[in-house]
C-alpha cells in the first residue's frame, strides 16, 4: 500500500513539471504538424505556474484537496486549449479526495479517473476524435480495472501508462474532430496528437513519482 500526503502530491507535480519541461520541444513539434506549435510551451507554462504556486503553500496546513484546487487555478492562467481542460481535471481530482489528509492506493486511482472524466466533460471529446482523451480515458479505465482486480498501485499505474501509450499511438490513425487540428480533416491522419503525447508524459511522471 502506498500513501501520500500533500508533500507527496507536491513532489508528483514537481516531477510532472520537470518531465513536461524535458519534453517541451517534442510536444511543440508534434503540435507544429497538426496545430499551432505551442503545445509544449502551453503545458510547460501551466505546470511551471503550478510548481510556483505549490512552492508557496504551507504544506503542513494544506490538505490534498486545497493543494489540487491551487494547482487547478494556477494551470488555468496558462491559456491555450489545455488550460481549462487540465484545470477541470485537477478540480475533479480535488473533489475525488475531498477531506482526506492522506491518499492511499484507491484514492490515487480515483484521482486519475476523476481527471480523465473532467477532461472529457470539459472538452466534450469522445474516444477516436484524436485528442488527449484518447490517452487519458483508456489509461483511467485500465487503472480502475487493475485496481479492482487487486493489483498494487504501481502495477495499476504501469497498466495505465501502457494503455495511454497505446492510445496516443492510435491517434496517428485518427482524423481530428475536436480542437484546432480538426480544421485539417484527413490531413491530420498519420500524426500523433500532441495532447495525447503529453498525457503519456504526465502519466509516466505520476508513475515515477510514486515508484
Ligand atoms: P491550442 O489548440 O489552443 O493551441 P494546445 O496546443 O495547448 O492548445 O493543445 C492542443 C491539444 O488539446 C490537442 O492536441 C488535443 O489533445 C487537446 N484538445 C483540443 N481540444 C480538445 C477537446 N475538446 N477535448 C480534449 N482535448 C482537446
Ligand atoms: Mg497548440
Polypeptide structure, described:
By secondary structure, the protein is an all-alpha fold. It starts with a strand and ends with a helix. The chain is built from eight helices and two strands. It binds adenosine-5'-diphosphate (ADP) and magnesium ion. Residues 31, 35-36, 38-39, 42, 80-82, 85, 119, 123-125, 131-133, 178-180, 193-196 line the site of adenosine-5'-diphosphate.
Instruction: Indicate the proportion of strand residues.
Output: under 5%
* Radius of gyration computed on alpha carbons: 16 Å
Give the beta-strand count.
Answer: 2
Overall shape: it is globular
What is the mean predicted local confidence, pLDDT?
Answer: 96
Tally of separate helices = 8
CATH topology: Serine Threonine Protein Phosphatase 5, Tetratricopeptide repeat
* Helicity level: 55-70%
Architecture, CATH level 2?
A: Alpha Horseshoe
Structure summarized in a few sentences:
With 211 residues, this protein is an all-alpha fold. It is built from 8 helices and 2 strands, in the order βααααβαααα. It starts with a strand and ends with a helix.
